[in-house]
Amino acid sequence: MSEQLEQLKRKYKNTPIPDELDFVVKKALQQRKKRRVSMMKPLVGVGAAAVILIAGINASPALANALSEVPLVGSLVKVLTFTEFQVDEETAKADIKVPAVTNMENKTLEAALNNKYLEESKKLYNDFTAEMEELKNNGGGHVGVESDYVIKTDNDQILVVGRYVVNTVGSSSTIFSYDTVDKKNQLLITLPSLFKDDSYISLITENIKEQMREQMKADPEKVYWVEGPMSFETIAKDQSFYINDQGKLVISFDKYEVAPGYMGVLEFVIPTDAIADALVSNEYIK
After folding, report:
1. Most exposed of 39, 199, 219, 249 (fewest Cβ within 10 Å)?
2. pLDDT digits (tens, 9 = 90+) for 136-147
3. Strand partners, 85
4. What mean pLDDT comes out for the span 107-124?
């Protein structure tokens, strides 16, 4: 396994990154043709100051046990922790785990996802170390960040890799992002690609507002910014989302995005009948 991880590392450093990961499902369903993607420069190496822990399962029984529990995609594709950036000081702590998707047939998509995970994690680590040095130069202070991933959905058709970042000092914030993969067609599903046109934006927005009002009416402890100057107006065209194991569309909001911080990260399952007329097909959303 350690040899496999080393091979992955070399491949990530030598593989160009597609300009974008917009593998449009609409076209895939209509034409079943492969989408061409433009290429960017190869990813750069990690800075010399980075602390990178890359361990094979033979070197760590604990890691071997952890990898044995990683969910499999079909009988081939799996997601594992490839790299970890760590800092453990008295006033500065960072733990940034980087996932890697392996054994996909679509090597362009596999490399694009893995390069994205690595590049975003490197930036997070570099930003953290820069903030840590700035605090030291200005008299000290505490700084902390944690990043990890979860498999939200893993069935015969859909794989969802969710990644989160938590600032662990002071008024902590949490950011979640998802990659939803069609395993059969080897495509990355984007939110716009599920729909015929932009009408989904207003349909989903209105349904979420209705759910917010109903929840606040049923539970006084729940507060959403539905009314007033800070009110939630509309989802973004590329709002964070995933498809759950029941084939339902789930819209996600980061902490503080549509509600006070104590409400945390928020998810809303969208009833399929509320968006049925706007869907390209029922291939994914049931």
Report:
1. 219
2. 898 888 999 999
3. 52, 96
4. 96
* Single-letter amino acid code for the residue at 220: P
Q: What are phi and psi of 27, to 5 degrees?
A: -70, -35
Backbone φ and ψ of 86, nearest 5°: -135, 145
pLDDT value at residue 286: 95
Residue 103 confidence (pLDDT) above 90:
no
* Tokens describing residue 273: 């009948």
Of all residues in the chain, what percent carry a pLDDT higher than 90? 64
Question: Does residue 78 carry a pLDDT above 90?
Answer: no
Tens-place pLDDT, residues 21-57: 443 333 333 333 333 333 223 333 333 223 333 333 2
Give the 3-state DSSP-derived string for the chain, with helices as H, strands as E and coil as C: CHHHHHHHHHHHHHCEEECCCCCCHHHHHHHCCCCCCCEEEECCCCCCCCCEECCCHHHCHHHHHHHHCCCEECCCEEEEEEEEEEEECCCEEEEEEEEEEECCCCHHHHHHHHHHHHHHHHHHHHHHHHHHHHHHHCCCCCEEEEEEEEEEEECCCEEEEEEEEEECCCCCCEEEEEEEEECCCCEEECCHHHECCCHHHHHHHHHHHHHHHHHHHHCCCCCCCCCCCCCCCCCCCCCCEEECCCCCEEEEECCCCCCCHHHCCEEEEECHHHCHHHECCCCCCC
Using the structure block, give the residue that is written with the tokens 């785990």. Answer: 97
